[in-house]
Specification:
Helix 2 crosses helix 6, helix 4 packs across helix 6 and helix 6 crosses helix 7. By secondary structure, the chain is mostly helical. The protein has a two-stranded antiparallel ribbon. It is 67% helix and 7% strand. It has one domain. Strand 1 and strand 2 form a beta hairpin.
Length: 139
């Protein structure tokens, strides 16, 4: 689970089963990641330069909307936009509160730590156990 702190409030972000069934966020986030990697995008200015800023902003807003549902549901994506405005307003020289950085953290949470991450870890452990068994049998 990820914690996003905005204006002194902690928002828990957790992607559960419904996040995968009710949305196409995993595919959209994956597609954006591929574009960003191919274009060597490192920050918000780079995203603007390749014309993907609206895609990034809408994806981050929806990721947070669905990530908030379990522990701190909000009325709609507009409320998440308000939270993102506050997040941006809190930026300092030391902590830029980059939307690109937030997107990266949310995507990691979505794909590695949430419901999907649990499934992936379980499958990886099964594969490792089979491989270890095969190595033991060969000896």
């Amino acid at each position: 689970m990820m914690i996003l702190k905005v204006k002194g409030k902690e928002y828990k972000v957790k992607f559960g089963f419904n996040s995968f069934c009710d949305t196409d966020l995993m595919e959209r986030a994956g597609d954006l990641l591929k574009v960003f990697q191919n274009q060597n995008v490192e920050n918000d200015n780079d995203v603007t330069g390749i014309g993907k800023i609206k895609d990034l902003f809408t994806c981050v807003r929806e990721l947070l909307y669905f990530g908030f549902m379990k522990y701190n549901p909000v009325a709609d994506v507009q409320k998440v936009g308000d939270i993102l405005d506050d997040y941006h307003d809190e930026a300092t020289e030391e902590n830029a509160n980059s939307i690109m950085e937030l997107f990266t953290k949310l995507t990691e949470e979505l794909m590695q730590e949430g419901f999907l991450g649990d499934l992936t870890k379980a499958k990886t452990q099964q594969v490792q156990q089979v491989q270890e068994k095969q190595i033991t049998e060969v000896k």
